[in-house]
Amino acid sequence: MKTVVVTGATSGIGFAVAQAMLALGWRVLLVGHTLENGEKALGALCNAFPQGEMACFSGDLMQQREVHRVADELNAYLALHAQGRLEALVNNAGAVRTWYTTTQEGLEQQFALNHLAGFLLTHRLMPALRLGGGRMMLTSSASHKHCRVHFDDIMYRRRRYSALGAYKQSKLCNVMFAAAFNRRYAAEGLRAYAVDPGLVATDIGFKQTGGLVKLVWALRKAQGVPAERPARTFAALCAGEPEPAGLYWYDGHVARHDPHADRTADQDRLFALSEKLCGIASFGGNV
Ligand SMILES: NC(=O)c1ccc[n+]([C@@H]2O[C@H](COP(=O)([O-])OP(=O)(O)OC[C@H]3O[C@@H](n4cnc5c(N)ncnc54)[C@H](OP(=O)(O)O)[C@@H]3O)[C@@H](O)[C@H]2O)c1
To answer: Which residues line ligand 1 (CB under 6 A)?
Structure first.
């Protein structure tokens, strides 16, 4: 049986991906934010897939020590139940913040969750991904287009905070990380994809956001597609044979990403900065 880890799996797109992968007969390891939401999601999935193999892990992935704890638990579970192998990792957990807010470790929250958490979790799961010839996905967004990574002040410490700007930058980082990952690890049989889910009717814009963002999101959500739609793309990328080609996917096909994400010097700069910010001596090396 193949195994997938899905973060942000207790609601929205991640929950729909978990459903789609259970329907394909995969073992699904859900990663949720809170224990309470994790138990609710696990209960609903157990009812829908009584024969399904699944387990839930919880942690605030904005905090790097929590990413490490969840990664330790996942690696222990994989060693016990899956010969240490992981066939797919979906880094999907994400958030929107209206105001400049930092994690307990002092990192800007959208950057910390939407980019660094996936970077660090992938690093920690690299031995399992290597054993499984794994595929890694990041939930990016069309909003990664027409923006730049502010290498001089990536966490908006000095520049005026822009909620949308920080979100767009984090989603550009997803595409750049996926591209950099492929340059480094495709030769080893590993593969990364960035997925644009489209506009999806989830509650993301209502969580820890201000009145204006909530209002705008209420209007946008009404135009959104159900989460099952992008989940089909993730399922095809996890399970498709032969291995799907292409970097950036939307609605079941390869789509155009911002060419800025292809600048290898910027990819490498982001990679090195992310290693530094996560305290990683060498990505994919000792975990
Ligand atoms: N909806 C869209 O139109 C759209 C478009 C483009 C990209 N995306 C991306 O899609 C991904 C999923 O979002 P969604 O729309 O499905 O919204 P969602 O239902 O709110 O999903 C986000 C998930 O991330 C989890 N999460 C939030 N903060 C977390 C934290 N600190 N630690 C661990 N987990 C945390 C949430 O858990 P809790 O609910 O328990 O906090 C939730 O399960 C995000 O990366 C988002 O940026 C969405």
So the answer is: 8, 10-14, 32-34, 37, 60-62, 92-95, 113-114, 139, 141, 197, 199-200, 202-204, 207, 224
At 93-135, the pLDDT tens digits run: 999 999 999 999 999 999 999 999 999 999 999 999 999 999 9
Q: What is the DSSP letter of 261?
A: G
* Residue in the structure block whose two tokens are 């009584």: 50
Say if residue 37 is exposed, middle or buried (CB neighbours under 10 Å; 0-12, 13-18, 19+): middle
Can the peptide bond before residue 242 be classed as cis, meaning omega within 30 degrees of 0? yes
Confidence of residue 84 (pLDDT cuts 50, 70, 90): very high
The domains of the chain, with CATH numbers, are 3-198+226-278 (3.40.50.720)
Is 167 a residue of the active site?
yes
* Contact between residue 43 and residue 21 where contact means Cβ atoms under 8 Å apart: no
Nearest CA, atom 7, ligand 1: 141
How does DSSP assign 184-251, residue by residue? Answer: HHGGGT-EEEEEE--SB--SGGGSS--HHHHHHHHHHHTTPBPTHHHHHHHHHHHH-SSPP--SEEET
pTM, whole model, 2 decimals?
Answer: 0.98
| Average pLDDT of the chain, as a whole number | 97
